């Protein structure tokens, strides 16, 4: 119980403003309750110089203890689905808002257990057919997965399983901790590979986030840059487990543009490739995205051809500013506004040859009313797009997404 409280207390922490004395950059830094706070009076500048920068301000001890007590009293109840009252500091601004936002993520997805010292977290995603050679269901899949981990001294923290009633297929996602000295990375890979051969798996992927390289991605964007800049900000804060190799756009941005300045500061190349109806510059794009693990379309308003998709051969994640399958194509916000809908949404999906019809990864909605204008529709829609796209990328990188049937996905 005490360990669980420490885990939750380390996750739900207030946010304070610090200023780097080297590059004079003001940024936000999270200061944990009772452990990380006492380690060092300084924080690493997350914006420019990456040097140790003393914080301008620190939370008073009383305020920090108040947040810690509140965390311990209420956050375990949140995991059971009970409503969470706002911390008293919510009326005082940033601290309360930061805590409330992070609690919402707890309600959406359970937090993995703490990793013991000296151990690493592993994630395994598995898909295999259920019937064996005799046409009967294969039994003991979960037992074999557990045995594979336990035989190497590992400890399973969570297992999600999905077995459709009308389909002979098995899906699972496991999180486990293990000692890398007892189970080296190459042997871990070999053990799960043997397991996949045993069951004839269509997919068996294992990742160790602290050992394996981050996913390498390229981002394509057009004129609107709210999704692009949101991704860049989340990447800078370490909230997306990816490395951005380049940004490609068919819209030219001046050198003093905020996106350009950000990319230059972090050494991320920006490629301006103007397109026409007869030349989509797809061959040049293919050369630029070569070697990436997947591609993100952050409001890239060009249709990618079937030959492009086949040549790339990997996943492409798109954000559609509408609640698919309704309002496909251009100007979905205006379509929704004219239709008088009461819910607007955003959809993140895989790109296929059929326009805006790929398997859906994530959807988010927000209520609107007759009092909303087209402008307020667009503002709400853009906020949903940013959150929806980021959540889809995060789910993909955490091995939570599997194809299901032709146009569906399993998202653990």
- Structural class by sheet pairing and helices: alpha/beta
Mean of residue pLDDT values:
77
CATH class category label of the largest domain:
Alpha Beta
Radius of gyration: 23 Å
Largest sheet: 7 strands, mixed
Label the CATH architecture of the largest domain: 3-Layer(aba) Sandwich
What CATH calls the topology of the largest domain is Rossmann fold
Order of helices and strands: HEEHEEHHEHEEHEEHEHEHEHEHEEHEE
Q: Note the overall shape.
A: globular
Beta-strand content bin:
15-25%
For the record, what is the CATH homologous superfamily label of the largest domain? Formyl transferase, N-terminal domain
Protein model, in words:
The chain is 34% helix and 24% strand. By secondary structure, it is an alpha/beta fold. The protein folds into three domains: 2-108, no CATH class; 120-207, Alpha-Beta Plaits; 215-411, Rossmann fold (3-Layer(aba) Sandwich), CATH 3.40.50. The strands form five sheets. The chain has a seven-stranded mixed sheet with strand order 11-10-9-12-13-14-15. The protein has a four-stranded antiparallel sheet with strand order 6-7-5-8, with helices on one face. A two-stranded antiparallel sheet has the order 1-2. The longest helix is centred in the C-terminal third of the chain and has 24 residues, at 374-397. It is globular and about 60 Å long.
